[in-house]
Amino acid sequence: MILFPGFVAKFSKTLLLSFPICIFYSLKNQKRSLLLLLKFTQLMKKHILFPFLVFILTGPAAGQGKLFTMEEAVLGGYGTFSPARFRQLQWRSPDTFTWVENDTVYMSSVNGSGKTVAFTLEDLNGMLGKRMLEKASGMPRFEWEGPNTIAFRTSSAFCRADMTGKKILSVINIPGDAGTVEMAPGGQVVAWTRGNQLYIDHAGGKRVKISADSIDGVVYGQSVHRNEFGISGGIFFSPSGKCLAFYRKDERNVTKYPIVNFMTRVATPEPVRYPMAGMESEVVKVGVYHAETDEVLYLDTGEPAVQYLTNLAWTPDEKYILVAHLNREQNHMQMKLYDASDGSFVKTLFEESDERYVEPQHPALFLPGSSTRFVWQSRRDGYNHLYLYDLQKGFIRQITRGEWEVTRLLGFDRKGGNVYFEATEAGPLERQVYTVSLAGGRLKRLTAEPGTHQALLNDDGTWFLDNWSNIDTPLVTALTGTGKRKGRILKKSENPLEEYALGDIEVGSITAGDGVTPLYYRLIKPVPFDPEKEYPVVVYVYGGPHAQLVTNGWLAQSGLWPHYMAQRGYAVFTLDNRGSANRGMDFESIIHRRLGEIEVEDQMRGIEWLKTHSWVDTARIGVHGWSYGGFMTLSLMLQHPEIFKVGVAGGPVTDWKFYEVMYGERYMDTPDENPEGYARSDLKSRAGDLRGRLLVIHGALDDVVVWQHSLTFLRACIQAGTQPDYFVYPTHPHNVRGSDRVHLMNKVSAYFDDFLK
Fold this sequence. Notes:
Layout: E1 2-3, H1 6-10, H2 13-16, E2 21-25, H3 30-46, E3 53-58, H4 70-75, E4 87-93, E5 96-101, E6 104-109, E7 116-120, H5 121-130, E8 142-144, E9 149-153, E10 157-162, E11 167-173, E12 181-183, E13 189-194, E14 197-202, E15 207-209, E16 218-220, E17 235-237, E18 243-250, E19 256-257, E20 260-261, E21 268-269, E22 272-273, E23 283-290, E24 295-298, E25 308-314, E26 320-326, E27 332-339, E28 345-353, E29 365-366, E30 373-378, E31 385-390, E32 394-398, E33 406-412, E34 418-423, E35 432-437, E36 444-445, E37 452-457, E38 463-470, E39 473-481, E40 488-492, E41 505-511, E42 518-524, E43 535-540, H6 561-567, E44 571-576, H7 585-589, H8 598-610, E45 616-626, H9 628-639, E46 646-650, H10 661-668, H11 675-680, E47 693-699, H12 708-720, E48 725-729, H13 740-755
Parallel strand pairs: 2-3, 43-44, 43-45, 45-46, 46-47, 47-48
Antiparallel strand pairs: 1-2, 3-41, 4-5, 5-6, 6-7, 8-9, 9-10, 10-11, 12-13, 13-14, 14-15, 16-18, 17-18, 18-23, 19-22, 20-21, 23-24, 25-26, 26-27, 27-28, 29-30, 30-31, 31-32, 33-34, 34-35, 35-36, 37-38, 38-39, 39-40, 41-42, 42-44
Helix pairs in contact: 8-9
């Protein structure tokens, strides 16, 4: 690590403001470098004199090699150029784990390094054949329900099998037109949806229709609230599988939005219910089905009718259901307890409020062997931390604290005395694994190597399988003990890009416009790079909540398209501005009621930093982003037309009053409550400020950022006399996926080649 602190001694404060201080971060001694970096950053928080506090983490060295095709750059990261990893790596028991190689499932023990065959596809198909069931063409995805039993799905059925006795235990056929399908713990019941209806199929062949009506606009068993608040589905089995909680969504009051399928002989309307900010929203209830009696009841969630019901959790004894109630204003949350036997409200366990917003995203997680004590995740102290509660005693204690975030809760040890989790405690770019006692005590870090770690904890909390990478390490899979027992490396992936020319990667930090907050960037230099030449720069931006684009993961989480562009002579720059994820509540929520202001300010700090490099051609700066990144692309192009020569905005929000209630009102309140904020962020009003070349791209079937956003922006440009370019993907929703994504990125790249290169 090389520090340049001499500025402090030699220059006045005024002169210091014109110089960057750089910390070169050495991969050869990452541990020591990180420690010095953290200490230096803490010091600078107290004595900020510099607009650019920069550390540089250098990635794989640029070199001569092959060039990517667009197909490789877009699709290769999911296949050919993805670091080698274990398939279906999982725990079979606390001491044994398994994985799939070709058509064979192998297993290994924590006590030894060898591997043995657990079972093969031939074994599985033999069992299916004995029951006259369809055979699998490849090893299906499966889960161990116990040391000897797996649950898996074929194309037409859910099955459970005894792998020791080599026999199928149960089969539940799945209708061909089923939508969502969920198997209950124990495998005796399957819940599935058809259209808006919800059904239960029992292993013995019995079928029960849960939904009591077939009304257009009333939906059962599916996700609600536009998948916000951590919601990803609408089916919640109890721990034993004997009961099922489910969502019932009544969206009859929500406007039918006209999505049109243009691929039919006569274009066909395929409307969706889309609740725009400030307009009517859906009414949600939580139902409960009891399999033993076929009774269906509803929780008495009360008024108001429009509220957000999220983070459903069963108590382990199945007596109660916890539901987080969030008001439509999203500034007050109540955790309520309901009796699962009759749906009655029992009591409010606790409440949380914030003048900006509260965003519960994780259900309560109960301790092993307890039906009363649970861990709750909250940002009530400014960062996402863990809190211990009891159904009878209420709040017990805060488990973790500090200016860092718990990013993933992994589980507990067998007795529920210690909790395990991933967190940013080592720095915002890091994901390390930790444990701490629920009784209180010192935090213990369990992973040593700098980078991003993803752990799979065994059932008794004694071992975890750790997949980790950093900027120059593709992927390492390790077996790691949580106590004193030593683990081992299971697989160290070779660099799949060894033969390819990669741009040199720098990851560093500059100071935000507030003069205090560090912002992390990733810079990929052109290949080959000559500091005596000048190069165009493409800013790749997202900039909104729930996303962090820069981490100390493989290639600094860049993907391959930026390197494709680097091979074509561009530098590619990405900055996580204030408003983005994993930096705490204040960092994220500063954008509240004024989207597109702070984010743009911070991105322009990045531009100022780029301009300090002699090799950056400041007359050739472009910008590209999608969704919120599309909004940011337009905002930067229109607010700073003197800087940005070319922009490509995909699926952009152009007017937040056209966006959905849940997300939009969280960050902007309603149009009536915040007319000034909505007016300032309305990009149509800036259409006349367009000076550079702008390409806007949209999917005609977009039901997230509806087509209306870009169409009304085009109309505003026509009225203002400005000339953006435009392209539509007729068959795609919000994201362009599959092989058509190659077409998309060819178009994006060609636009920069035509007007920026």
